[in-house]
Amino acid sequence: MRNKFFATTRLMRLYLRQHRIFMLIWLLVPGLWVVINILSSRILFPTEQSLIELGKTLNDPLTIAMHGAVLDISIAGFVTWRTKVFAVILSGIFSIIYVVRHTRLAEEQGKRELLGANCVGSLSPLAAAIANMALINAAMTVFMVLGMSAAGLGFTGSLAHCLAIFTAACFFGCAGGVMAQLFVSGSAARNASFGVLAALMAIHILWNAKGVAGGVMLLSPLEWPLLIRPFAGEQFWVLLIALFMTLVFAALALVLMDRRDMGAGIFSQRGGRATARPGFKTPLALSWRIQKGMFFIWLGFFAVFSFALGSAAELLGSSISSAEALAGIIEKLGGVDKAFMSLMLYVFAILISVYCLMSAGILRGEESARGETFLSLPVKRSGFCLSHLLFVFLGTAVIALVSGIGVGLGAALSTGTPGEFTRLLLEMVRKIPAIWVMGGLAVFFFGLLPGWMNGASFALLVLFVMLEVLWEQQSISAAVYGLSPFSYVYPANDVAVFTLAGLCLVSAALAILGLYLFKRRDLQT
Fold first, then answer.
1. 516 φψ region: left (φ > 0), alpha (ψ -120 to 50), beta (else)
2. What is the value of pTM for the model shown?
3. SS3 of 183, please?
4. Less crowded by CB within 10 Å, the N or C end of the chain?
């Protein structure tokens, strides 16, 4: 058994020399997010009375569904409540990407075979990836604890909050390691891991909306930062269960890797036909075969979740209308009966942008894996790109339309108001140009900086989300928030046809420029 982990520490040092910019962003962004919230909270709520008034506005189903209950009415309690979900999701995504990149994706690109030619244990690559993932998350945790302590928040509560985020991030990284053993391709493993994260987020919202409490919540890493109760009588025993679940997934990943061949997966690929189908002879047919799995997973998820959310419109709307302290804010969004669905559609637009960027990332993966072989055939570069861009833009539009139909249909049936269907569907349609801008940015980076495409695209998406949050907290001006394409489709803002047309033109210009740059550069395989 010891030989299977031979040279693990050497591989750890090797991995730490790679993707340093990615690791730097991973280290700094969650901590900066917490520090920014501390500073902005002290500006917005300078007195104890202002915090008490804030606590009244946070005791409504809309806020509780997204973030859970506020445990402590103080700056420290508000900051931990406001940052826990976003910090877990962000660090979890970084952890998944890192582990899958150094395991399944390395095998897919042939790097694992080169490592295997040296004296390297069979389990060393996965063990090194998981160990480094834990070390980077530990460094991120130290940075967050130091930042919170330096800002005057209590050390014990800060430590509890950050350790819960640390264990949750490590759990998602180990879950990515498990998915890397189950699936043959890196994109499938990454998508399955993100699917686990999305499913847990949906469960998190439903549990909070229904007021679920008790031991069942310990099974979800998104609940650990709440259950540990930072600054509200810390319960560090939660970390024991979190650590146990994380170690179980890490051990499961190692066992699965030990039981499969290199390049294979536990879920073996289905055998293909001896001869291709008559229609399987175009770039579009190949891109459809590659992209359809992820497309249908996202389409099915949003179809079911949007209908379920729309069906709860009447209940949530009546609950929100009873929160008098929230009435002023809700009124800006068109009234208490429309606010919840409008905000959820805005969140849907941001989530669908993740699919848009992931679909564009498949184009980059195809260039790296099969681009040279594919373009040696009588296929133009434009045809190679456009076959995938059809999913980047048209695919996101279809998912957005299905989401609007699901929310509108559920709301119309639950409230008995047929007009809700048209209103919500049109509101979702108005979000599509903003999503397309993210797709255009991804294509632009594909042509200009292909090696940085995924990191730069997702970094911009995170930046736009942070701008929105800071603008809501009145920490930045509307002009700065205007740098985000989502600012033009925010529910409280009037959306003109010329604005939507401008967003479409921007996305088209970015995509065309990206294609032009791709034609003028060398292939990067």
1. alpha
2. 0.73
3. coil
4. N
Going from the first residue of the chain to its last (525 residues), give the mean pLDDT of each consecutive group of 10, the final group possibly shorter: 81 88 83 78 71 64 67 81 85 92 85 77 90 95 90 89 95 95 84 86 77 73 90 90 95 91 74 71 83 86 81 55 46 58 82 90 81 77 87 94 90 80 90 95 92 85 83 78 89 81 95 92 76
Distance CA 52, CA 403 (A): 37
d(CA 197, CA 485): 25
Cα separation of 385 and 515, whole Å?
8
To which residue do tokens 């045809």 refer?
Answer: 383
Give exposure, 375-407, as e/b (b: 16+ Cβ within 10 Å). eeeeeebeebbbbbbbbbbebbbbbbebbbbbb
Distance, in Å, from the CA atom of 28 to the CA atom of 141, rounded to the nearest integer, reads 10
Q: List b or e across 503-522, with b for residues whose CB sees 16 or more CB atoms inside 10 angstroms.
A: bbebbeebbeebbebbeeee
Which position has the token pair 């150094």?
A: 102
Give residue 245's Cα distance to chain centre.
Answer: 22
Phi and psi at residue 320, to the nearest 5° = -70, -35
Give the C-alpha separation, 492 to 472, whole Å.
11
Per-residue burial over 235-264, b = 16 or more CB atoms within 10 Å of its CB, e = otherwise: eeebbeebeebbeebbeebbebbeeeeeee
CA angle 281, 287, 290 (to 5 degrees): 115
Residues 6 or more apart whose Cβ sits within 8 Å of residue 305: 202, 406
268: which 2 tokens? 């073996």
State which amino acid sits at residue 433.
P
CA 310/CA 81 separation, integer angstroms: 26
How far, CA to CA in Å, does 524 sit from each of 279, 366, 519, 521? 29, 10, 12, 9
